[in-house]
Amino acid sequence: VSTQSTGSSGINAEYGKQWYQRRVRGEYTRSIDTTAPLSKVILEQCITIEPERAWALATELKSAKQIMVTSKRAAEKNTVQCVVSHMSASEQRRHEELSARGASTWITTLPLQEHGFVLNKQEWWDAMAMRYGFELEGVPPTCGCGKTNSIEHSLSCARGGFVYMRHNQLRDLTANLLHEAGCKDVVVEPRLLPLTGEVLTLKSANNANDARLDVSARGVWSPGDKTFLDFRVFNSLAPSNNTLPLDRALLKHEDEKKRVYNERVLE
Fold this sequence. Notes:
- The structure is a single chain.
- The protein is mostly helical and 267 residues long.
- The protein is built from nine helices and three strands, in the order ααααααααβββα.
- Strand 2 and strand 3 form a beta hairpin.
- The longest helix is centred in the first third of the chain and has 35 residues.
């Protein structure tokens, strides 16, 4: 029985087949090139090998392996660039996020109950759908704020509370880890000292008497010194962020936090 695929699914299947064939040919070629020095010695059927030649053979094999690794990485990089070039703008941004350092650590993290790392199957399905941009099942079509519901909207809407939940979870987890790491005087939402006549130079600086940050602890960078930490959780696919490269978006939010709190903390 033969079938013929049509539409985008057929195109994707054919592209996947071609990619697999190219990868197999590339792996075979690199294997032949890497083992060529050793294959030559085997074909000679020498019972013993002189020490000088053995050393030269080991050096040649090491060099061939390094060339193979470099060639393989270059081929993989070219493949990724080719695939990314056919993605939409939102898909490219999602790929940029997933390629960032540490973005996939949670998948291989031990499921420790005490840290809330245990996911049931529904949470796992939802996490995978959010990771790869699939639609979530069972989500109401309209948000509580009245707008059309979607993953991107849920990550930005303050009405539903998910922004605050994600922020507070990160805050509490960091405080617990600092305590486990041996830091002293770990405080959640510590109040800053009130101003007593000091004039802050930046207009954006927080000069409220009840100003507070997310976490403070002693011994983070050096013994006895007090460190203040403040977090911001943002949606990189939001219109205010998706026009910037991910690294620049991160720096933008970091700079905003510094302008608000850095001078106040140092005072």
